[in-house]
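I'd like us to work through together how a protein chain folds, taking it slowly. To get us started, please write out a protein record for me. Go ahead whenever you are ready, and we will take it from there:
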Amino acid sequence: MSMGSPFPGQGYNDGYSRQGSGIGGRLIIAVIIALIAVISYYGRPGDENKITGKSERVAMHDEGEEIAMGLQAKPEMVQQFGGVDPDPRARAQVSQMGAKLLDALDKKLAAEGRTNPYRDHFQFTLLADPKTINAFALPGGQVFITEALYRDLETEGQLAGVLGHEMGHVIERHSNKQMAKSQLFQGLATAGGIAGGDQQSAQMSQAIAQMVTMKYGRGDELEADKWGVRLMEMAGYDPNSMIGVMEVLEKASGNGPPEFFSTHPNPPHRIEEIKKDIQEQFPNGLRPGLIK
């Protein structure tokens, strides 16, 4: 007498076959999602940066969209950091320094036959927050510095360095490029979670995507430091003043998280890179008369 199947119409191998079919289906879906993410990022032509001339992969190809996004987010940022600083003299100094840096950039670009599409939309805002040592930029030209950081700066050159660094983020379209990369890595993370078929795989994929994105964030910071050095010298300020800014930030950071898990390189590392940048950009030495 032969032994029958434990369930009507289902042999012993059917369960395995269906499980295998499920795994295969997940893999197919995962591959499709991954391909869509990769093609969406790498398949479209790069967008030329009108300031640097470099081809870039961005989420928003129209600078007007970046400008609109920055203006839309500005009120929330101002509110988050206690409003605009009430000191008119300090606000004027920040605005005037920003204007100096912009004028210097305009002269350089004009000599190269280029223009700054954000020129008329740059705004430099001093925020009233007396405790948070910070400076940041929004897409399209909104640049902010808190009172806490502003009060700790000792020279005009240091202020030029902070604002020049933040201008570098706008010039390089870092937020825009980061949005495009985030879309790519989120797509790949979703594909990884589907392929793994469980919550742990999905969480691991998301963690890997986040670490990759943070690595790019640290690279953006160093690239913005290069612009700080460049813009300072263009405007007549000594790029070595950037080192003083890093010392202020190091003192404020205390026992922060390790550099590997931070979007910003730690200040000692940035100081080393700034020294290299100055040497590379000005191999024959800095011109005399630069303001500290």
Remarks:
- The first strand starts at residue 47 and ends at 48.
- Residues 1-20, 208-216 have pLDDT under 50 and may be disordered.
- The chain is about 60% helix and 5% strand.
- The beta strands are 47-48, 55-56, 123-127, 135-138, 142-146.
